Amino acid sequence: MLSAMYGLFQGAFIGFGILQRSGRNRGGARQASSGDAKEEEEEEKKNKLTPGTEQVTAPIMAALAPLLARMAKTIDAQNWSDNGGNPLGMMLAGLDNITEAARDVNVNADGLVVFADAVRKAAADGHADSDFSVTSQYLLQ
User: Fold this and answer.
1) Closest C-alpha among 12, 7, 30 to residue 105
2) How much of the chain, in percent, has pLDDT values that exceed 90?
3) Partners of residue 24 on adjacent β-strands
4) What domain of life does the UniProt record list for this protein's source (predicted)?
5) What is the rounded CA–CA span in Å between residue 43 and residue 35?
6) Is the per-residue pLDDT at 131 higher than 90?
7) Partner of 75 at 20 to 30 A CA spacing, among 46, 88, 94, 138?
8) CB 127 within 8 A of CB 84
9) Average of per-residue pLDDT values in the chain
10) What residues contact 10, with CB distance under 8 A and at least 6 apart?
C-alpha cells in the first residue's frame, strides 16, 4: 500500500507549495520589506510550514487514517449510499478549490487533477451524493 503513502506525500507537497507561495504577492515576488528586523522575523514565522503541519495537518491525517478501513469495506460492498455526511460532490468542490489555489500560485497539482477528474466523472454519472469511495471505480482502467 505504498501508493497510499505516496498519495499522502504528494498531497502534502502540493499543500506545502501553496502555503509557501501564499506568502508572495500576486506577481510572485516577495512583499517589500519595511526594514524592521522584528517585523521581518514575524513575517518569516508566518511562512514556515512546521507549526501548522505539527499542530493541524498531522493530527488531522492521524484522525483520518481509520477511514481507510471504512473505505475498503464500502468498496468491498459496492454500496455507495452512506456518504457519512461528506458527499462526493462536496469533496469535488474541495478538490477544485485546491487545484485552483495551486494554479494561482504556480504549484504543479497535475496528479491531484487526475484524481479530481475521476471524482468529476463519478459525479457526472450520478454519484454526487454518494460516498467518496465510489471514486475508486473510476480509477480502474
Assistant:
1) 30
2) 77
3) 30
4) Eukaryota
5) 12
6) yes
7) 94
8) no
9) 88
10) 111, 112
